Amino acid sequence: MPNNKKILLVDDEPDIIDSLKIGLEDNGFAVDTYTDSALALSDFKTDVYDLVLLDVKMPKINGFELYEKLREKDSKVNVCFITAHEVYYESLREIFPDMNCDCYVKPINIDDLVRRVKAQIDRK
């Protein structure tokens, strides 16, 4: 049953993109993906996505920089970060103390991701 929630997923690793996209779509989400953070930024449209999932460590524009640039375009954008390193979550909280977001640490269990994505969207 579709839930009509739309997610933007940006990660420079195609295997991660593929597995997360399939898992999220299997749970009723519509998912747009990018492996190029600069392209994701240039194509970004306001008021389209219920949630944006950003990898932290990417070439060209990292996840933190991309978050800031997306916020310039849409101050209400709902973002969660994906990282392979727990230390980034601590940095995230220091850099953006008022941000109501989550950080998912790879490897990501799809059932856990779906549960957390739904909770994050519901908080919006």
Written description of the protein model:
- This protein is α/β, with parallel strands linked by helices and 124 residues long.
- The protein has a single domain (6-123), classed as Rossmann fold (3-Layer(aba) Sandwich).
- The protein has five helices and five strands.
- The protein has a five-stranded parallel beta sheet with strand order 2-1-3-4-5, sandwiched between helices.
- The model has no long low-confidence stretch (mean pLDDT 86).
- In CATH terms, the superfamily is Response regulator
Radius of gyration: 13 Å
The biggest sheet, with number of strands, parallel, antiparallel or mixed sense and barrel status, is: 5 strands, parallel
Remind me, CATH topology?
Rossmann fold
Structure keywords:
five-stranded parallel β-sheet; alpha/beta; 5 strands; Rossmann fold; about 20% strand; about 120 residues
Short summary of the structure?
This protein is an alpha/beta fold and 124 residues long. The chain has 5 helices and 5 strands.
Give the SSE map.
Layout (H helix, E strand, L loop, with lengths): L5 E5 L3 H13 L3 E5 L2 H7 L7 E5 L7 H11 L5 E5 L2 H10 L7 E3 L4 H14 L1
Parallel strand pairs: 1-2, 1-3, 3-4, 4-5
